[in-house]
Amino acid sequence: MTKQxxxxxxxxxxxxxxxxxxxxxxxxxxxxxxxxxMEYRRQHKIKRLLRASGIKQVKTLSQFDWHFNPxxxxxxxxxxxxxxxxxxxxxxxxxxxxxxxxxHIGSALCYEAILQGHSTAFITAFDLTSKIQKALxxxxxIDYYSRIKVLCIDELGYTYHKKEDTDIxxxxxxxRSEILPTLVSTNLSPKDWGSIFTGAAASAILDRLSFNGRxxxxxxxxxxLSRKQKLK
Length: 232
Fold this sequence. Notes:
5-stranded parallel beta sheet, Rossmann fold, alpha/beta
């Protein structure tokens, strides 16, 4: 263990003791302890962020069955994953029928962000609007989802959204636009969003998401439906 490594650990952990005050024959012992302490802090932070994220079951990209639906482009998904999508505030819209893995990908991306130490929220569009409407301070709740580092709005399009819902979704997405990444999974193609929003609202939300955003369409068989049929 070099002096530089020990000094780095002292700085990153916020220790007040200067390196010069530590006897050289104790450097290795102290550095080993501080390294262990840093890892425990990292794991504690991951657990805390995971609890707050709304992810009920951890799903990773390595667990995704790319062979089940060859029509789903692994290359396109991984191209986004390996891009600086968090730092560049890139949006991602995952489009396709139920059971194709959109939620899995969205949840896995949130988990990847958590491993990097970022706050995330994985929540359905219905739960998002309901939580904000029921909050004692809806404005503060909107601000919370507007400021969280990575937001994944799941299952957009599964229910019709009233004007109040639409206003909430627009405010959250608009406040995040160009600042923080927003992930959305939906069973509706953009041209059909007029069936759940008014035409003007649909265009406005899509405009915000399309700025620095990628739209990926999932096609093929439903994984859950196929698995259910096999169990019969």
